[in-house]
Please model this.
Amino acid sequence: EHELGTARIGRRLAVWSRVGSTNDAAARGASTAANDGLVVMAEEQTSGRGRRGRSFHAPERSSLLMSVLLFPPASLAPMGKDSASGVAWLTVVGAVAVAETVAERSGREARIKWPNDVRVDGRKICGVLVERAIRPADADGPETAVVVGIGLNVNVAADAFPPELREKATSLRILSGRDFDRSDLARDLIRRLDRWYDASLREGPSALSLAWRDHCEHLGRPVRVATATGVLAGRLVDVDLEQGLTLEPGPADDPARLPGLVRIPLD
Ligand code: BTN
Model:
């Protein structure tokens, strides 16, 4: 249990051959704060979820399907308009840890595409799904429980992706031409998640900003960002955990040109 040497994440670990969704399995641990840092992994999910109610399909035994249960202090997880509000920084914790792991293993640049994809050469290798866990009324400890779910394509062969994803998705195996030890990879990822989460609790989520900028896919480039009030088009000039995304006006002939710098809060 202690061989990971982490402060929190992975001190409790559950590995299943098959579950509905590891995010749900981890959320069931939310009744007690003793499960802070619980990691749930599975070989296969029968109802894996992506963002916006999409399903997330991963070929059996060849991905890393992992969910981490965390109890961040209420000050770092303020309740907002919906259940994803106030915890977007945890998506960045997941994405940065994955991007570092992928870059190190593949020798390629791994880029974070806001809000929750990690990509290599424009192809998605991982998705992160952060959800609040509902806590039972008699639960002990802090108010807020959050699950950070990570689906990373590891030993997935190109022809194992459904045809519509073949041009859009990739895996460590496709990038490197070999298979990876998933336990080894899981250990590495858990350690990185633990370090980034711990740094965020000590210094505030801004501790992540530099690493996020380093791995950010579109920094300095034209982007279109969907917001609550519509799509904004401009050049992405900064990403920051406190300031959110900063866009600068695009070309003068663009009818959707922004009047000036715009900050888009994370959630
Ligand atoms: C996305 O791409 O929209 C996010 C995908 C997140 C998938 C992971 S797999 C492990 C965890 N359990 C789930 O049901 N979803 C996340």
